[in-house]
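Anyone? Bumping this.
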Amino acid sequence: GNSVTQMEGPVTLSEEAFLTINCTYTATGYPSLFWYVQYPGEGLQLLLKATKADDKGSNKGFEATYRKETTSFHLEKGSVQVSDSAVYFCALRTSSASKIIFGSGTRLSIRP
Amino acid sequence: NAGVMQNPRHLVRRRGQEARLRCSPMKGHSHVYWYRQLPEEGLKFMVYLQKENIIDESGMPKERFSAEFPKEGPSILRIQQVVRGDSAAYFCASSPFRGIEDTQYFGPGTRLTVL
């Protein structure tokens, strides 16, 4: 079946450090891939997405590239800020279904 | 344009009571999705509805749970005879149409606590 696996947290970094959160997926066909962010006590916000192989999604300094050959969609940011502290979810959606399948989430904490 | 609205934000129920969760989609959106997030876990799909129709309920528990999206008014997720295991955050999302490139916009969630 379709699934998403992302690195377990928590991840703790110092401000201005480089961030990578790994995400790999299993899916039939050609899914769309997403990163969502959840700030404390809030709902999910779409951070970025990519709909086909080699697409790069980007937003707020975050980037992720759809790698079909490695079935990956790793999230990166060159210099994190304290305000980036949140839980990050990798997710996919296939053309044959409307539901989104989420990874288990990675909690990120940034130290000043 | 207001976002997806959910109420109540927090709901406390005793075992055996009923819980009703409401979701008002974004203006112009006719597709609604419900997801459940158990503590320290990701979101799990429950049900997908269009106006007056249930399109996909493959994630709904077979008993005690039901959902509707009437022609007028919000979508309702109803949980009868709640048990402690129903304690979770329930998120609603809406979209304007169905398609792989369609974006689902999430509400702030309802956090249900069953005592």
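Late reply, but here is one note on the structure posted above: The mean pLDDT of chain A is 93.
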